[in-house]
Amino acid sequence: MKKLKRSARLVEMTQYLLVRPHSLIPLTTFAERYNSAKSSISEDLAIIKEVFHDEGLGELNTLAGAAGGVKFIPKTPKAVSLPFIENICRELAVPERILPGEYMYMSDVLGHPSVINEIGKIFASAFADLDIDVIMTVETKGIPLAYATAAFLNLPVVIVRRDNRVTEGSAVSINYVSGSNKRIQTMSLARRALKEESKVLIIDDFMRAGGTIQGMKDLLQEFRATVKGVGVFVESGEVEEHLVEDYVSLARLANVDSRNKSVTVLPGNYFD
């Protein structure tokens, strides 16, 4: 790359870091890329680090030594995320969104890339300090949330299917009890999709009693995998007992009164 002025170099370096979150980038990469001395690169990174911190964009961590470099960790402060989630709660608190069984219609909200992107950033902030190998979700509505989260954590996504697909080869299938209606259902994961003893973050769009998430946890036992965290976009607060206890929710369906057409949606336990 041609030699750039510092102002242009700062812009290009920032973009380079933003699209490579959680990746260790040696200083020599920048020095060679911009044909600049490491001392100049270090000064540039100090400026970027300060701006990231002051503007709540994340952390720029420096690792010393011959194998060192810098690593960008996207993190959004809760105080910055809360107004966004409160606005989403207002959008969801419309009686017409309530479906039979007290499920919630959210496809239109989750159809906006900007919304999905922000939710993924919040989840990535919540689980940024965990040692994770892969993001897991179950088809279908949790898929965009999982990919958005994975983009900020720079991790692959594994999708659990409701049934085995011939195009995915041999698979592990289990039966699980749906927490909401107590029905026996099936979920399947291709053997090639997940390495044994992987460390997994589960992301889902909606959790009522937690039967589906518990099913994924049971499925992961077949791969000797470890669940490092669980994130749900909206949880139902009108369930006497959740099958899953340790989870992060961004919004909570606190009250549904079908007779009076009243719905209350509040920020989830992440903001408690």
From TrEMBL:
Keyword Transcription: yes
All copies of domain Phosphoribosyltransferase, residue ranges: 109-250
Keywords of the record: DNA-binding, Transcription, Transcription regulation
GO molecular function: DNA binding
Official protein name in the record: Pur operon repressor
Upper classification of the organism: Bacteria, Bacillati, Bacillota, Bacilli, Bacillales
NCBIfam families: purR_Bsub (TIGR01743)
Domain named Bacterial purine repressor N-terminal: residues: 5-74
